[in-house]
Amino acid sequence: MLAQVALHHDIEELSRVITDAGARTRLSRIFAAIAEEAGAAILAVYGHAAATAKADGSPVTEADLAAHRVILAGLARDCPGIPVVSEEDAAHRAPDPAETFILVDPLDGTREFISRNGEFTVNIALVEGGRPVVGVVLAPALGRLWAGAVGAGAWTKQVGEADWHRIGCRAPESEGVVAVASRSHRDEATEAFLAEQPVAGLRSVGSSLKFCLVAAGEADVYPRFGPTMEWDTAAGQAVLDAAGGQVVGPDGAPFRYGKSGWRNGPFIGWGARKG
């Protein structure tokens, strides 16, 4: 429970305490347990959940909504007093960039869920001062979980196992970088970026898994020029940042959160850079 990690309901005090690396690590474990609860709810309907269209035309399934309910209940139970914004909220309130809040995507990669390829995730992140500082990404169908706490490190484990294993970004090999790109949302700008890089390998992967592959040293760069929302990226960025990587805009500026409308611009997720 949140009281066990000495995090307080008062937001000013909360912000001060969560700057401590140990508290961030413990909060990542709380997020991980909640994500696993949501993953179980998703897998309970995996294989037969039908999709409908939201007002913006994007797909939503019974699994999205089931995971949303489980996560909100878990956060209310274990993290009371921290504002929560979920993709599946009926109405998204206006952001306050100075606020400490939790961003949730109950099921990232709904198209991958519908196609049954396993490349969908549960994302939970804590944002402080416009930056995600704690994040958890769970791939329920793959049985793998990643967690990051900026200032403390990043880890991965298999679902159902107790032991976490530390991960970190790698420096690219002399032959070039291994890039990861969206399986469902590739565009001309992404292709142009890749054409300018010394690409030695390219993997097409769905959802926020791309951040995790870079964080774990299994790839070197993740470019995304198509549209995303903040809840799509916050948890993955927290894992990548905690593993020694960085997420920046095409101009190299830090990638920030709490934007009007919650919509992201283009970004590039890098692992360890040479030089």
TrEMBL record:
Keywords: Cell inner membrane, Cell membrane, Hydrolase, Magnesium, Membrane, Metal-binding. PROSITE patterns: IMP_2 (PS00630). Its cofactor is Mg(2+). Mg(2+) 1 binds at residues 87, 105, 107. Mg(2+) 2 binds at residues 105, 108, 232. Its EC number is 3.1.3.7. It is a peripheral membrane protein. Its main location: membrane. One of its GO terms (molecular function) is 3'(2'),5'-bisphosphate nucleotidase activity. It catalyses: adenosine 3',5'-bisphosphate + H2O = AMP + phosphate. Pfam families: Inositol_P. It is found in: Cell inner membrane. InterPro entries: CysQ (IPR006240), CysQ/Inositol_MonoPase (IPR050725), Inositol_monophosphatase-like (IPR000760), Inositol_monophosphatase_CS (IPR020550). Belongs to the inositol monophosphatase superfamily. CysQ family. HAMAP family: CysQ. Converts adenosine-3',5'-bisphosphate (PAP) to AMP. PANTHER family: 3'(2'),5'-BISPHOSPHATE NUCLEOTIDASE 1 (PTHR43028:SF5). This is 3'(2'),5'-bisphosphate nucleotidase CysQ. It comes from Roseomonas alba.
